[in-house]
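Obj: model holo form, ligand = magnesium ion.
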Amino acid sequence: MGTIDGATLMARSLKQQGVDYMFGIVGFPVFGIAGAAQKEGITYIGMRNEQSASYAAQAAGYLTGRPQACLVVSGPGVIHAFAGLANAQQNCWPMILIGGASPSYQTGMGGFQEERQVELAKPYCKYAHGVDSIARIPYYVEQAIRTSLYGRPGAVYLDMPDNIISGEVDEDKVVQAATVGEPPRSQAHPDDVEAALSALESAERPLVVVGKGMAWSRAEGEVREFIERTQLPFLASPMGKGILPDDDPLSVGAARSTALREADLVFLMGARLNWIMHFGLPPRFAPGVRVVQLDISPEEIGTNVPAEVALLGDGKAVAKQLNSALDNRQWFYPAEAPWRGTLKEKAEENLAAVAPMIEDESAPMNYYRAYRDIEEWLPEDAIIIGEGANTMDIGRTQMPNRTARTRLDAGTYGTMGIGLGFTIAAAVVHPDRPIVTVQGDSAFGFSGMELETACRYKLPIKLVILNNGGIGGGIAELPTDGPLPPFSLTPGAHYEGIMEAMGGKGFYVEDPKDLRGALDEAMAFDGPALVNVRINPKAGRKPQQFGWLTT
Ligand code: ADP
Ligand code: MG
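Output (holo structure tokens):
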């Protein structure tokens, strides 16, 4: 038997554990790992910034159902990638970050890019470890991948010193590891399943909240059956959109605030009562709202509002239990319940409130007018990435999702900069599907150089920038004197030129009547395309009763 080097053993172990994609930036000391990964059959995508690489890895993990990898150099490379580690952890998405490290025999000496990487990674992940022996690489990879995937998913980190990467070991000394199987699907206690259904039956104004935990657990079939059978009104969380189609008659997305405020019982299915759901507290929820909570994480149960019934287990398995238990009940939520009327009325009122903005043909256009054309243009099976302030918030309401895991956005952590990493991951994982990204001009700036990555790999992504010349609000033109407002960005900046310079196709639109034509041309173009749309800097959302962060 011969010898094997650490880089090859790392690549082989990752492949064994179902890692098919690696996003990263090579440099000392990790060159060898990327090359070995390609030899072992892992698709390697070279990015331009470690943040984007780690955002891409987690989106690929969410879309494939297995942790995917991010590879970065020591010191600053690892520090940049922490942005993604933190985002993955907050989103409960799996990923594995592999950081190069200075040689272990130089620890404490001030080595090149020496940093306390394992220590610093710990708060952002479920598991962080230094690899201290070449022979045990498969062992560490198995432990990391299993920890990332099992239970509530999350990020993991492995630290690879230079001498472990380039060192060699006799093949017969390698500690072999088992292949991590699909996560076991835990079930809720049958008494709790009955209690949950009884609670729902007793509610006057029930509301089901469908979150991305159900999308992650591939529970879309079971959730659809549950909603069809119970006829309960439901609200999708931002990335829970599509588990059921947004245009389902039982969706109350268009009456979101009223549904949350007036429900007497909320059934959380893989969704959290964090800031996105206004903590489940007044004034956004009724005082004393009853909560039934399905989650895989015991620690999550009762967060901010005590749960009357806890369904602790895997989303897909528990939804199946609920459906089986329904066989013994004749019940469904009655068609004539007054609650349905309240929600329908409110939804119609909300749609009427934005109708004038949708029809407004003035230039530069407002967000709703821009989204009118975008919505009509969106292919049915598109994966939609949304990022920005108004661009993301309004886009969430105007761009429908019809299948699970077709929306990626700033998520639980509210991260700006995820857009292009998520876009590239979606395009790599789903080469047969249209990938459409709608970003604000500020959001685009955080990772704009990844356009070069998209062009280099010939990924046919379609990017729309809603360009209001600022962060949140914008400016119409640069002031001739006085300081620039802190929120300002260059009005009418020609971001489409960056796309052209990298080899893709760019369009610039100011008049709403030109938008649809540009979108169609972008879609027809066989490669990456960017449509830069000038938006009125004063445009915003419809007047809100509460600010977006109001508790
Ligand atoms: P959303 O933003 O859609 O509300 P969150 O990320 O806030 O979604 O919540 C998702 C919840 O789903 C988390 O509390 C997480 O523990 C839970 N979860 C993750 N995986 C599963 C699973 N397999 N089954 C059930 N719940 C899950
Ligand atoms: Mg902007």
